[in-house]
From TrEMBL:
Occurrences of domain NAD-dependent epimerase/dehydratase (ranges): 15-255
Family affiliation: Belongs to the NAD(P)-dependent epimerase/dehydratase family.
Residues that span the membrane, as ranges: none
The keyword Isomerase is assigned to this record: yes
Pfam families: Epimerase
Gene source species: Fermentimicrarchaeum limneticum
Entry-linked InterPro entries: Epimerase_deHydtase (IPR001509), NAD(P)-bd_dom_sf (IPR036291)
EC id: 5.1.3.2
Gene3D superfamilies to which the protein is assigned, alphabetical: NAD(P)-binding Rossmann-like Domain, UDP-galactose 4-epimerase, domain 1
Gene Ontology molecular function: any one: UDP-glucose 4-epimerase activity
Protein name per its UniProtKB record: UDP-glucose 4-epimerase
Keywords, alphabetical: Isomerase
């Protein structure tokens, strides 16, 4: 895959990444440093999620780290004051956890995001805010590929709360003039993702299972369709959204543009890893009802406005990801 976009140098730009020690956040940090930005990582380091010191080992002396929760308005406000761009990734990202602990999901995904926006409104209304949304806001696809005009009908608490948070961001742009953008991120995989469990980031978890020679459970018939986007491509889309004024007030869907059956993704992982196996299994109680059957998206809008397209095929991305974990698996399980 080849694309024409180019990220601009961000020399002296002050960037705050909420959820910055996690998978996508730390990938952004590495990229932004290469663009000469000043980077601050704000992360609660909640144990069930992806914050990991290993993610920034090579750059730890080049970034500032604040151990903070977006639910802590006082600390968050101090962090927001002296920043030009906020890449707002902090979230409760597990669909099953959102159903078993709905108030936790509301607390992090609704209250936490309102705190970010209120901190900007009160103390730094010039800061550009790029919100990381999710494909789960769409729900079951009525047509494919999904685009930005598709109606939203999320199937679980996480999708509802992430949709509410997106609407908060758009509202604060319309009413208060805060420059906000939402990028709805699809199934993302790649280096630096937690592999402790499969509550989210299932492709990476399947890589772990295959590398350990274990059996991967595929729920249902495995014929669900998805697209999977490599983390470097996702990071580029978020940075472009921060760099271009044409993104302000917009919602973008991003994905790989490569539709694949779930079971074929599993087979591809096993093939490239060189070991592991899979078996079909019934959905656990309550999971089928929140499982989106088919989803993949078109990148037409973000390509036309920001020039973004994915650069990494699933084959190449899997090979890069597996090579990373062959060296560092112990740090992520």
């Amino acid at each position: 895959m080849s694309t024409m976009y180019k990220l601009k140098n961000m020399s002296d730009s002050r960037i705050l990444i909420t959820g910055g020690m996690g998978f996508i956040g730390s990938t952004l940090a590495h990229k932004l440093l290469s663009l000469e930005a000043n980077v601050t990582l704000y992360d609660a380091m909640l144990p069930w999620y992806g914050g990991n010191p290993a993610n920034i080992r090579e750059i730890k002396d080049k970034v500032r780290f604040i151990k903070g929760d977006t639910r802590n308005f006082k600390l968050l406000s101090k962090s927001v004051k002296d920043t030009d761009v906020i890449l707002n990734l902090a979230a409760q990202v597990s669909h099953p956890i959102s159903m078993s602990h709905p108030l936790l999901d509301i607390d992090i995904n609704c209250v936490g995001n309102l705190n970010v926006l209120e901190a900007c409104r009160r103390f730094n209304d010039d800061a550009t805010v790029v919100y990381s949304g999710t494909r789960g806001q769409v729900g079951e696809a009525l047509y494919l590929p999904v685009d930005e005009k598709h109606p939203d009908n999320p199937l679980d608490i996480n999708g509802i709360d992430k949709l509410a948070a997106e609407k908060y961001h758009l509202l604060y742009n319309r009413v208060y003039g805060i420059p906000t953008t939402s990028v709805r991120v699809g199934n993302t995989y790649g280096p630096r993702h937690q592999m402790k469990h499969g509550h989210y980031g299932v492709l990476n978890y399947f890589i772990r299972k295959a590398m350990l020679g274990e059996t991967i459970k595929v729920y249902g018939d495995g014929k669900q369709t998805r697209d999977y986007c490599y983390v470097d491509d996702v990071a580029d889309a978020l940075i472009l959204a921060a760099q271009k004024k044409s993104a302000i007030g917009e919602v973008f869907l991003i994905g790989s543009g490569e539709m694949i059956k779930f079971i074929d993704m599993v087979r591809k992982v096993i093939e490239i890893v060189g070991k592991g196996s899979y078996k079909l299994a019934p959905f656990p109680p309550g999971r089928r009802e929140i499982n989106v059957r088919n989803y993949y998206t078109t990148n037409r809008k973000i390509k036309s406005i920001l020039g973004w397209e994915p650069r990494t095929s699933l084959e190449d991305g899997l090979r890069k990801t597996i090579a990373f974990y062959r060296e560092k698996l112990k740090e992520y399980i």
